[in-house]
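Dear support,

I submitted the protein below through the web form. The confirmation email said the job was done, but the results page showed an empty box. After a refresh the structure appeared. I'm attaching both so you can tell me whether what I see now is the final result or a partial one.
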Amino acid sequence: MAFSLSQPALLLLTATYFMGAIPFGLLFSRWLSGKDPRQHGSGNIGATNALRTGGKKVGILTLLADILKGVIPVAFAFQLGLNEFEIALIALAAFLGHIFPIYLKFKGGKGVATMFGVLIPWMPWVALCSFVVWLLVFKLSKFVSLASMLAGAVLPVFAWLLDATQEGIMTCSLLGSLMIIRHHSNIKRLIAGTED
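What the results page shows now:
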């Protein structure tokens, strides 16, 4: 595993965090519905609560933007020829920017869309397999939170089965774990039977 960090990687890493931190759910909700998702539903700025707060258009735009904030920097990292360690850091920067945005006092989303976004250009088959798990669990349970957590839990398993690099497996483990931790309130509601 290479631990070197080139100047292009360092610049992209910084830019990626600030891009990942853009709260698209909040921006689209305010722009299109005049509502603040932090004051409605779960209080989250992610696509699910943006959908509940601002409607279908807001939800779709938020979902796409949150995915792209992961896709774009990782794809750019490949264009720059960065190594796997640098790509892993770029992926984590996008994800951490979303869940801990500096613009909102580090109170962000849960990272599901951005998690898939960083994997699409890097480990597309891992992303696809995890998304299939998400779809199956959601279809059976009707709970977005449960589907998201299980999709995150299987990420490192699929990364290992599909022969991802050590950096890839470790990144999938971190992404899945952090995303599940961000769902702590959903876990409590699922246990209590009050999750919607």
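Response: this is the final, complete result; the empty box was a page-load delay. The longest helix spans residues 56-79.
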